[in-house]
Design a protein that fits this description.
This protein is α/β, with parallel strands linked by helices and 398 residues long. The protein contains eight helices and 28 strands. It has a six-stranded mixed β-sheet with strand order 7-4-6-5-9-8, with no helix packed on it. β20 (282-286) and β21 form a beta hairpin.
């Protein structure tokens, strides 16, 4: 049986993305979401000639004619209506952020002044027009594009949304995701497992991984009972956009997931990928519903979610799905099976280069080993020996 290569699996998955539509949310709740509209300036930025230093505003023509001392007419505060300089031989005290008074064209900060008896003397020999003034429209003009569509909103974008008065903002809808673990050997986190049992961990790892994408996934556990599995999954396919399974996809006697999905009309796109860990990975579609069925071993589940679900989600949101991260192998490494190997590595920066040092684990069930590593280095399936200094694709999780 020919296995699906990693490259083929990624290609198939990226050809099966979905558009979940658009919703409007309060701008304060949009952090991490994907913007689905163009944000334009509703006015010039800044909207007026703005004073950028506390000091005096005056007319530089008078200074250039030799005048150095200017009587203070008044004070222009930030947020106050614009004043007008009545006599160009005088000046107006002006505060940072204030509108520049009419008939003035330069500001000199207090540190370069001597003020006595209501007269400000400038201790400079040269003054430029619009010195210490942030000119109207210098940053952006009205209707200039401030944020392009398909931008991931961060705190910087939220500040811009506030500036233009965008209270409600259009963002990509998130998929409804259900994460399902299977197996009679699993118990809840708050339970004391018997010798033949272990606590559920994969589901919570996946919930956390998806949380980084601002997806609030639901999760559940189903015992290895085919009838129960089928009934539950049938309901999930109606309610959720995406199902992510951890376990029951190999060839074990109780690995019912592929069989159940087939009976429920989920069309298999591939089953088993030429990789380690994560070889039994199953992927399928039913209409607009998408199913990722990952192997139950913790490292398999983890790396497969990062390698396959993440780019699928990015493309579905209208983002770039390519991962162009790379790192330099910091030690010679040998891997004999003809499989793409996701090598756990520790990352260090040295002389401007990102170095990846292999972290030896105990296989795909060694969940604790993920704590010691920072990323997976993707080693190709057509080689056995990998040499220190070579560059390979990188999947980071820190």
């Amino acid at each position: 049986m020919n296995l699906t290569t990693v490259k083929e699996a990624v290609s198939i998955i990226l050809n099966k993305t979905e558009d979940f539509g658009i919703e409007e949310v309060n701008f304060l709740e949009s952090n991490g979401r994907v913007l689905k509209e163009v944000i334009k300036a509703d006015r010039d930025f800044p909207p007026f000639n703005r004073v950028s230093m506390d000091g005096i505003a005056f007319n530089s023509d008078s200074f250039n004619k030799g005048q150095r001392s200017f009587k203070i007419e008044g004070v222009q505060g930030a947020g106050s209506p614009q004043l007008t300089l009545k006599d160009t031989a005088n000046c107006i005290e002006a505060m940072t952020g204030a509108v520049l008074p009419l008939n003035t064209n330069a500001v000199i900060q207090y540190e370069l002044l001597t003020i006595k008896n209501g007269v400000a003397t400038i201790n400079l020999e040269e003054v430029r027009d619009f010195q210490n003034i942030h000119k109207k429209g210098l940053d952006r003009k009205v209707n200039d594009v401030l944020i392009e569509q398909n931008k991931v909103i961060s705190s910087a974008e939220i500040g811009v949304l506030a500036t233009v008065g965008k209270l409600m903002v259009k963002v990509a809808k998130q998929p409804k995701v259900m994460i399902v673990s299977t197996g009679n050997e699993l118990v809840e986190v708050n339970e004391i497992p018997e010798e033949h049992q272990i606590r559920r961990s994969n589901v919570y790892t996946l919930v956390s991984v998806l949380k980084k994408l601002n997806i609030n996934a639901e999760s559940t556990h189903i015992l290895d009972d085919k009838k129960v599995l089928k009934a539950k999954i049938e309901g999930f396919l109606k309610e959720f956009d995406v199902l992510i399974f951890s376990g029951a996809v190999s060839k074990g006697k109780f690995d019912f997931i592929p069989e159940v999905l087939d009976e429920l009309g989920v069309e298999k796109q591939f089953h088993k990928v030429k990789q380690r860990p994560g070889k039994p990975f199953w992927f399928g579609k039913k209409g607009h519903k998408t199913v990722f069925a990952f192997p139950g071993n913790p490292v398999s589940t983890y790396v497969s979610c990062l390698k396959y679900f993440y780019p699928w989600f990015y493309k579905s949101m209208g983002l770039n799905a390519e991962n162009n991260q790379q790192a330099i192998l910091n030690e010679d490494f040998i891997f004999k099976p003809s499989l793409t190997y996701f090598l756990q590595v520790k990352l260090i920066q040295k002389e401007g280069k990102l170095l990846a040092t292999p972290i030896s684990g105990k296989g795909s069930g060694d969940l604790a080993n993920l704590v010691d590593a920072d990323a997976f280095l993707e080693l190709p399936d057509d080689r056995t020996n990998f040499t220190k200094g070579e560059i390979f694709p990188l999947i980071t999780y820190r």
